[in-house]
Amino acid sequence: MKPRIVLIGAGSATFGLRTLGSIFQSEALQGSTVVLHDINLGALERVADVARRYVREHNLPYTLSVTTSRQEALEDATFCVIAIEVGDRFELWEQDWKVPLQYGFRQVFGENGGPGGLFHALRIIPPILQICGDIAALCPEATVINLSNPMSRVCLAAKRAYPRLRFIGLCHEVESLSVHLPNILDTPISNLSFTAGGLNHFSILLAVRYKDTGLDAYPDVRERAPAYFERLPALTQMLREGFSGELPETPSDKRWADRRLFKVILERFGYLPITEDSHFGEYISWAYDVVDHQGILDFYSWYKAWSLERATAPRLEAMLEEEHWGTIPIMEAVATDSRHREMAVNLPNEGLIDNLPQDLVIEVPAMIDGEGVHGMRLGALPKGIAGLMRIQTAVQDLTVEAALSGSREIALQALLVDPVVDSVERAEDLLDTMLDRQRPYLDYIR
User: Fold this and answer.
1) Second label for 230, Cα 20 to 30 Å away, from 42, 125, 145, 305?
2) Ordered domains of the chain (ranges, CATH)
3) Which of 180, 247, 202 is nearest to 361 (CA)?
4) Which helix (H) or strand (E) holds 42?
5) Pairing assessment for the beta strands 372-375 and 340-348 based on DSSP bridges
6) For 311-382, where are the alpha helices, taking DSSP H only?
7) What is the pTM of this model?
8) Which alpha helices (DSSP H) does 311-438 contain, by range?
């Protein structure tokens, strides 16, 4: 039987069309039924119109279905891909980021970690669990791929609420290594084998070797990477090389998002972070003193404008021609039993990383076959790195418990165990302010 692939949140042009484009290029998935689902009918139809025309003009062997009914979409699904946000994504994100700063909590970015990561998680976990409930009822054997942030907390909530679901999280950050390692080591990526792992957006390069000689390449990384960070092309140049279309102006002397913290982690802990932007600093109490704040602001301004520009009609057709990471190879491997190795997947830590708690969602390489997604055991992380990551255990645990229980008391505890938070009184005031400002999404917290 041909797969039934459900894209939840397909009204997002970036997610919907880029994923569709990759599905349309897949030989293994030909003949599939692809169901586009979103609660925003206007956005959904805009994406669907472009996709229908593309299928018709290229005579592609796919059946497209479009619906705002989640129950209708999920009936007998083989794969479910979730990429959602609630409300005005950028308005709420800016609240997550900037309101804690107003209360004196020196967080970086505030999407996945810090106080901002808590509020983001409390907003998005309930609707994702509603989706999971429908999947459990209508297609319990489906492979569920979550792309929504905060990745680790969303995946942990799904694990606790629906432990039998085949639920994984997928993030593209690890692919930055395919860009940077060849430049650092002056050798093509085809000559390198590497392993990364840790927590989502808080993961490191654990090992890298030259294939032609079999030699350990990490000594060269440690020697050459700091200078590489210094000579990285300016932000505008990198963006123009990496993306097409109109881009907003950015100062030509600014570096890509944030490399200062990378240098500190590499020099003090001996390992290279893998994130492509500023997320790594969200989890560290002293990162605010280290990161490139101007670079982070420049990147955010560009990313917001880029995202809004890509939602317009002239860009929609072009996105179908772009390659989308991760989700398609996983679906192909499950459908064909092909034993595909994915560089980074978010899964429960069931013996995969020894010195992180087992009741935690971690990010590790995985092997995918007809039976599903199998995390690859990494053993023990370097002690210093594991120490940084273990601090997040209680934060993620309490965040998920607050979301599942709706308890204001536990939400406050999640704030108070976060390494960025240094005042009980200000934490209480911040929580009251955010519960009021985001009342339409957080009124279940009492």
Assistant:
1) 305
2) 4-88+109-173 (3.40.50.720)
3) 202
4) helix 41-58
5) unpaired
6) 313-319, 327-336
7) 0.93
8) 313-319, 327-336, 383-405, 408-416, 424-437
Give the Cα separation of 444 and 406 in Å (integer): 6
Give residue-wise pLDDT tens across range 96-121.
999 999 999 999 999 999 999 999 99
Helices 383-405 and 260-269 pack at an angle, to 10 degrees, of: 120
Nearest to 13 by CA among 245, 352, 228: 245
Q: Angle between the 424-437 and 408-416 helix axes, to the nearest 10 degrees? A: 130
pLDDT, tens digit (0-9, with 9 covering 90-100), for 179-219? 889 989 999 999 999 999 999 999 999 999 999 999 999 99
Number of Cα atoms under 13 Å in the Cβ half of residue 184 = 24
pLDDT tens for residues 362-411? 999 999 999 999 999 999 999 999 999 999 999 999 999 999 999 999 99
Catalytic residue among 172, 201, 279, 324: 172
Active-site residue 172, yes or no?
A: yes
> Are 382 and 270 spatial neighbours (Cβ–Cβ below 8 Å)?
yes
